[in-house]
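User: Round two. Same drill as before: sequence, then structure, for each protein.

Assistant: Same drill it is. First protein:
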Amino acid sequence: MTADSLVAVGQFDLASVYYEKALFDQSQQIDSMNADVYRLMANELLYKKIRCQKYLKRFEDAWQTAQRFNLNEPNDTLHYKLRYEVALAGYLSQHYGEAHGQILQTRFYIRDSTLFSGLDVLEILTLNELDRWAESKELFKQYAARNQLNIDTEELYRFLKKKPKSPEKAQLLSFIMPGVGQMYAGFPKEGLVSVGLQTLALGFGVYHVWHRYYLIGFFTGAGMFQAFYFGGARRAELMAEETNRKRKAKNNQRIRMTLIESENKKGK
């Protein structure tokens, strides 16, 4: 097949086009083909096309292609292969809810549970992206026990003891006391800068009012203070969200690397 030859020389983009052409050509012969044969051939072509799209890091395209699988497959091994590919494409394209739903369906529809070895890793990673850390932790414990891994799960998930920052609380604290919201969000230097700017703006206004430059003092000084005051509160909210994103990414990376190391050890 032309597409397979193109894959062999690394022409994944063009190979993807030829796999789609092969799918179209096959669809024109559907009336003359056995339904089971057509299903198997179409699924295999789609599977190969998805591999090309993943090589090219076109994960959203891979996700859309995976939706075209015919999942009415009686063979457990092939059925698992297809559903795992759908779930993986969903994870890579950041459709985490759909990916987890596919994982649950895989566990439900596939009778041979011995095929699930790779599914645990994907589900742990997907649960992490959904912020379902407690479920992820429990599944990781089962994964470690099943594979006889010497991993301290409590240590790995110790971050669960630290509550995420509340954006609403950060904003409220900034309204009550300028700069405190930023400090709470984990940015003490920006908190001090915010206090300084608002103090300067307020001082500028008071100074000019004291010297009877009322228009400058009120419109310029008060205007700057208002901008810094409300802008600082909004900034504190965004900083709390940023802190949570960074913590999540750091925790995810730590668990991801632990899983990769574990899988590599299993493969040796």
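Second protein:
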Amino acid sequence: MRIATYNVNGISSRLPALLQWLQEKQPDVACLQELKAPQEKFPEAAIKDVGYEAIWHGQKSWNGVAILARGTTPVEVGRGLAGDPEDAQSRYIEATVNGVLIAGLYLPNGNPAPGPKFDYKLAWMERLIIRAADLIESGQKVVLAGDFNVIPTELDAYKPERWVNDALFRPETREAFGRLMGQGWRDALRTMHPDQTIYTFWDYFRNAYGRDAGLRIDHLLLSPSLAPALKAAGVDRDVRGWDKPSDHAPTWIELDL
């Protein structure tokens, strides 16, 4: 079973690249982030034409998450995180696909930090940690997949010294991510490539992709009951070099279930 996560950075403008990737790689599940489209503007028909059923949580101009499944319909479990009834941002969705619970997320960026956006990021992470603990406790086979907007270690950033004051790399962010991982989650990409410099995001500016000046901020975390099934993990790096690409590349895992 191949599960991927892909921040598309606007599904309307990136649709040709998304459809090409789905047809070429044929992941069984694809978690999408940053749809930047209201609920009614999601391109359901085009995605269905290439063999995928979808559930999505849209939002006009910003955010938005979706879960796509090849040849089957994701069974929605819920959307949004508990703990803040005033939070209207579309950043979290859960569904089951072929016996695996998929949690697709788009964690807040948090910049500028410090400030209200950073406070929101940290509060959102606390809500995620609570939900993740419940998922671990359930014993289910779970994947937390998405754009976490977290640089876990210096190995995950080109010239990490440039990121020390950024919300993605500040000590508070990494501390919260560390507590999440401390619940027992397995970082799939780092498990398979423990010492390799590997990125999932390259900025549009200063030829970042050409210089391989990237970040690893898209993660697939496996629950303890699912971690033994991990067989491979990687990044479809070439997709970042396609015409009119997202600034992220699809990141994937293969599970032997």
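Residues 2-255 form a domain with the Deoxyribonuclease I; Chain A fold (CATH 3.60.10.10).

User: Perfect.
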